[in-house]
Structure formats: C-alpha cells, structure tokens
Amino acid sequence: MKKLVADRTSLIDASGIRKVFALAGELKDPVNFSIGQPDFDVPEPLKQEAIKAIEAGLNRYSQTAGEKDLMDKIAAQAAAEFGWQKPAVLVASGVSGGLLLAFLALVNPGDEVIIPDPYFVIYKHVVNLLGGKCVFIDSYPDFRLPVDKIARAITDRTKMIILNSPSNPTGIVYSPAEIEALAKVAAKKDVLVLTDEIYEQFSYDGPATSIAKHYENVLVMRGFSKSYAMTGWRLAYVAAPASLRPVIEEMTKIQQYTFVCAPTPFQRAAVAALDYDVRDLVKDYVHKRDLVYDGLKDKFELAKPQGAFYAFVKAPNGSGTEFVKRAIRNNVLVIPGNVFSEKDTHFRISFATSDEKIQQGVGILCSLA
Fold this sequence. Notes:
By secondary structure, the chain is an alpha/beta fold. The chain folds into two domains: about 5-40 and about 280-369, Aspartate Aminotransferase, domain 1 (Alpha-Beta Complex), CATH 3.90.1150; about 60-275, Aspartate Aminotransferase, domain 2, CATH 3.40.640. It has helices spanning about 15-25, 45-55, 70-80, 95-105, 120-130, 145-155, 175-190, 245-255, 265-275, 280-295, 320-330, 355-369; strands spanning about 30, 90, 110-115, 135-140, 160-165, 190-195, 220-225, 235-240, 310-315, 330-335, 335, 345-350. The strands form three sheets. The chain has a seven-stranded mixed sheet, sandwiched between helices. A three-stranded antiparallel sheet has the order 9-12-11. Strands 1-10 form a two-stranded parallel sheet. It is globular, with a radius of gyration of 20 Å.
C-alpha cells in the first residue's frame, strides 16, 4: 500500500505531551498542573452577550476578517495604546490560529525565525512544517530577554523575531528596558517582530510592556481565551500598523480558505469583553503564584513567575522527563520542559487550579526533591 501520510507530519513531535497523558491515564483525582487554562468560568455578563447573539440569529459566517463592530473597537484601542493611525485588524480563531496564518503568510523555506528558548510549542512546529529554520536563543537560567544574543543571531535570512511576554512556559514578563532594547535592535536591522501577548492581562508586578509602543514593524497578537476563560470559544485578534496592512490582507486571504472566520456569536461577546475589567480575577492568580513560588523555592531552582500562570522549574536530578515520570507516579501532572525547549532540564507547572490543589501538589513535589 502506498504511503498515505505526508512527510511533513514527521516534523511535528507531540511525544512529550502524549507520554504525560499516557502515564496519567490510570490516575484518580490527580493534582493537575498541566492544563494551560484558567480555573474560573467565562464571566456571566459575557456569557449573556453570547447567548443574546445566538438567540438573535447571529449564527452565520461573519466577514472573513471579523465583525465590523469588533474590528472597529480593536482598531480604536490599538490606535490609542500604540499611537497607530488606522491600524489593520484581523479577528482569528484563537492566537494559535493567528500564529498559523502569520507563519503561512510570511515564512518561506529557508527563512530564519528567531525564538527565545524556552518557547510556546506552536512556534517551532509550524515553522518547521513550512520549511523555515528556527534559530533558538538560549535564555537560561533566569529567562530574561537575551537582547544581545538576538542581535548577534540576525542574518540576511532572518524573517522575524518572536516575542512572548508574559511568557508560556516561564511566567517571565520582560522589563520595559529589555523591550526597548530589542526594539532598537529590530529597528536597526529592519526585522519584523511578532509579539504574542495572549497573557497580557496576567501581569502581576505592573503592566506588561508591548514592543508595539516602541516599534512599528510589529504584529500584535492578543486573545480572549486566557483573560476571559474563553479557551473553547477560539477567539483572538491580530493588530498591526497601516504599513503592515498588506500582511494582514494576506493573512485574511488565507483565513478565507482555512478557518473561514472566527465564531460569529462569540465575536459579539468579545465586543463587551474588551470593556470588561478582569483585575479581580487576576488578583487571585497573584496569590496562586505566591503559593507555588514560596512553596517550591527552598527545594527547587526556579525564577519567580511575574505573569501568565506558569512556573518553569529546574528538575533536581538533571532530567525534566525523568522527574515528570516520578511526579506522575505520585499523582501530580506536570509537563516536561523539553516540550517547550531544546533542553530537558526543567518541568512546567500551570497553577491555574484551586489553592487546595496547589498546596497538595507543591507538598508532593517537595517530597520528591
């Protein structure tokens, strides 16, 4: 029989996460530190907006780029925040969908994409699928933005630099000085920056700085999944200055032939979400962060998370994978660091769970150290 599966599928390795769930299959009521989604529900007023849209019959396709009311509101907020005139906007099916559209529109075979390591998993695999080359920039041990290393890595083949702050998996938020320094490097070399700001509202020690405030050759990706617990609604947006409108138009064209559009009734709810204050919900995560950090810091090496809801913890025996196996055998689900990195020295904790589960899981992990 002929080979059916395309060769490109071999460029995606899901084995790290698969092993975790294979090991976890028989666990009873585990401490689940693996899931990257909030433990609160969509706020009730936003649910009602979606319900009203569904009952009003707004269940058909929207325009490919998004509902006009939502796009206008996103554009107005981007103009106010970044000082852009007439921003270009695309409503996407999640930030992951936006990332896929951006990579499809921008990356040619052989193009280099600079990615600080550790990184969100999708970056590496989609770049590889498209024949691009990932240029990983080591940010260990403290995971600060390695601006000098990035500057040295830029070549004539560099297509873009990827920025993710607040970060998945490290929980690090880059400082204003680091962001400004990278903006100067990117401007000097005229390199596009793609900034993934899905956790932008989960910043615990002050607002997260967007590079879009300092540099115009940038695609900004933000979403509704984390801040409003809409992970299953698959809704996000891409914003860019008018100079990058041709890129947004190409992404929109690709969306027409892939996702078609983002879910229409949820776009109506997103209009209201852009005005919804989630600060009280985020405050709970400051407490959860402290429970994790204070509980682990005497037994493990870890950088204190400043945003998102993750901690990236050094494994005490040198192998993240081996420590994860031990943790799972003791009823704690964590993810090996090599899912998010070219190294296998750490493991990722998501503290998006109850305080009781955090205390239980931290106790077990400390006993294993």
